[in-house]
């Protein structure tokens, strides 16, 4: 049981066992609340047995079940009543999200007056966009191209905006980091308002959200483009050793230059590259870093003295089979020791040791230790905390939307796109570029009370930099369907080409800054269903 404290007196977890009931009782819990319907999945421990074990431990147990996304006001009322006078409460569901959401819903009546008392009246916007990353800015720009007179607001606490696909090339010595950076104030679209705050709470039934400073912001339509959380803390010892002891990651602006420094200076030893379980943004990025590093070592003659290993928590090198042969040829070329189903769980930077959760030959869990001289880490990733704990989230914590229209499945005036949504596509900047016009068109139609028709086909792109000067340009949609932008005679995406490298190095960065973020929808006009 992984127990998460929401307050000093309220905690949540995934499904508990009878032994967990004993543990909770010993920790001082006086009430257990189950938010799962019985028989939700095969093998689930039903509530009656939990209640019986709780009674044996002289603690109470209450069943307030509801399915994901179907919490009702009476559920919240029963929950609030159960909490009255109870000192120490633990609630559970399949993942802990429903138990978090019902607690949050139970707090709304007390949060709202405090926020109203400490802030000015709620500003009213036609459209509020949470997140000014690639997806949020592109949506704002595309929407303003369609309807320039709307009152639009972007909410994001950041001072800087980054072209993150460029960090692979920074780590490979091709770009300088500064080329990927702009001040946020310089990329916010004209005719929009920027609130430089974080969101604490969503109140979708009231068409409002609450900021960290207590201010409430109301909207007609809401777009959630809050990105993804890089969970560095999930790997023991990692945070304190990043940027030193040979430990780096191209997933951070300040660390990508260190990657190149390590690559240039490594003449012999062990180079280890890792990939965590899905979902992650840009699933090809961990191996891109490896290919560019190996290419440098091969060309400067040090490759024969460096053992390169790729530890992948997944079971394949790439999820779309059409691109696998080209990638496997480079694994062979660079003599990469590839280990699947190995998940990084601990790093000892000073002693240069990495530890991976795996299974032995009998299928039993084990920990594999390896020594490194250079360690490139891709961190595990999840939805941001304020999203996972919100009423907008699905069971896994992502914003719950229709995979084609990108409209929320329960709140019809809310849309979501980019890394934070639960659409089953690859989480890439190219996906956001294709999604933004879909959301913009659908909201523009909704503003005019027209039926929404724009749909997203799951397009994502991963330019796999297999060597300096050549890229395998993977482009695919839902179900792994190949969706190439260019005809085969211009670029065969299943093979490494110089054309794709030129696209990545020379064309896409200005295309991003001066096209996508300005609302120009080159190659991504939304498909419309009749």
From TrEMBL:
GO aspect biological process, one term: sulfide oxidation, using sulfide:quinone oxidoreductase
Domain of life (superkingdom): Bacteria
Cofactor requirement: FAD
The Beta-lactamase hydrolase-like protein phosphatase-like domain, residue ranges: 5-107
Xref: InterPro entries: BLH_phosphatase-like (IPR005939), FAD/NAD-bd_sf (IPR036188), FAD/NAD-binding_dom (IPR023753), Prot-tyrosine_phosphatase-like (IPR029021), Rhodanese-like_dom_sf (IPR036873), Sulphide_quinone_reductase (IPR015904)
Keywords attached to this entry: FAD, Flavoprotein, Oxidoreductase, Quinone, Transit peptide
Sequence ranges assigned to domain FAD/NAD(P)-binding in this UniProt record: 125-245
A Pfam family matched in the record: BLH_phosphatase
GO molecular function: FAD binding; hydrolase activity; quinone binding; sulfide:quinone oxidoreductase activity
Protein name: Dihydrolipoamide dehydrogenase
Organism annotation: Marinomonas spartinae
